[in-house]
Specification:
Elements lengths: L8 E7 L6 H9 L6 E7 L6 H6 L6 E5 L6 H12 L4 E4 L5 E2 L4 H9 L5 E12 L2 E3 L7 E4 H6 L13 E4 H6 L10 H10 L3 E13 L11 H7 L1 H12 L4 H26 L2 H24 L2 H23 L1
Parallel strand pairs: 1-2, 1-4, 2-3, 6-10
Antiparallel strand pairs: 4-9, 5-10, 6-7, 6-9, 8-10
Protein name: Glycosyltransferase family 2 protein
InterPro entries: Glyco_trans_2-like, Nucleotide-diphossugar_trans
Pfam families: Glycos_transf_2
């Protein structure tokens, strides 16, 4: 990778129906102290007042593009990266999130060029909910091979956060980024990219991920969550091609899938009936495999939640009969 002290950075802001957040996202991007960057707002044919919110800004570094038709979340990511971004490095800041560190891009680029072969720089972010703010787990600054990152992915400290992850655009284009239209399209792309080089972790909190009812990551539809498991088949195929030993990959993959499946089932229980969790396990079995499914079924949480759901339903039925 050629040494360039100030390579251009593209801050991509894909958005749809986020008029209440978009101004904050743009402002947080434009106050970055790095000397050479562009901000591209890619509006996926929003039916609200997003365009008017963006029009308030007059900064020459800001560009607004409105899609003529709705491409969907992942399609909009892909258009921003492949057709509109011009920087050597890019970061994806969704229109409902924001940076909290004005020096993020500057620090990330400095780290990216501290050692040859780095294709990703990943920092941490806070999670903002209606109940308050959740701070991330701490992780010291370090540089790892992409293979080592994948093998450690069962540990949430090594998870990539879209808004806090700067990546090398030419390398991403070669990896066919955002090729899967699923919930975790960013993880699928970033993990495959990581396997081509090194990942630098930046020990600082650089932004806020705002969780609200419209977040794709809060989707509790069991079919969508089961489909999302396909990212691990894709990533593991790339890992095998990168010559990670199958036994080592299988052991690390099982640990990661147990974590993911627990999270998915927790989401399903929040919004669905008892049987949807089991439908998820059945649909996901080709990827989850016997070891993972048995570990999940052996956990008391599953049966306690099932019992509570059944009792709640039975109690409601009795109440309706009495009324």
């Amino acid at each position: 990778m050629p040494m360039n002290p100030f390579p251009k950075v593209s801050i991509m802001i894909p958005t749809y129906g986020q008029q209440d957040f978009i101004s904050n996202a743009i402002s947080s991007a434009l106050i970055q102290t790095y000397p050479d960057f562009e901000v591209i707002v890619v509006d996926d044919a929003s039916p609200d007042h997003t365009a008017e919110k963006v029009a308030v800004f007059s900064d020459p570094r800001l560009r607004y593009v409105r899609n003529s038709r709705n491409l969907g979340r992942v399609g909009n990511y892909r258009r921003a990266l492949y057709e509109l971004a011009t920087g050597e490095w890019v970061v994806n800041l969704d229109g409902d999130d924001n940076f909290s560190d004005a020096d993020f891009i500057k620090k990330a680029i400095e780290l990216a060029y501290s050692e040859p072969g780095i294709v990703i720089v990943s920092a941490r972010r806070n999670v903002v909910t209606t109940a308050g703010m959740r701070k991330p787990l701490q992780l010291e600054s370090m540089i790892l091979s992409g293979k080592e990152v994948l093998l450690r992915y069962h540990d949430p400290r090594y998870h990539f956060s879209h808004l806090a992850t700067l990546y090398h655009r030419p390398s991403a284009l070669d990896c066919d980024f955002y090729r899967m239209n699923v919930i975790s399209s960013d993880w699928e792309s970033l993990l495959r990219l990581a396997l081509t080089g090194k990942v630098a972790f930046l020990d600082c909190v650089v932004g806020c991920w705002n969780l609200h009812g419209s977040n794709a990551s809060l989707n509790n539809c069991w079919q969508d969550l089961a489909s999302n498991l396909e990212i691990w088949r894709s990533v593991h195929q790339t890992a095998i091609a990168a010559e990670i030993p199958p036994k080592t990959l299988r052991r690390a993959g099982n640990a990661t899938l147990i974590l993911i499946a627990y999270r998915d089932i927790s989401l399903i229980f929040k919004g669905s009936g008892v049987f949807d969790a089991f439908k998820y396990l059945i649909r996901g079995f080709p990827i989850l495999k016997t070891v993972v499914v048995l570990r999940i079924l052996a956990h008391p949480y599953i049966w306690i939640k099932c019992a509570l759901k059944v009792l709640k339903r039975v109690g409601l039925a009795k109440l309706l009969r009495l009324s």
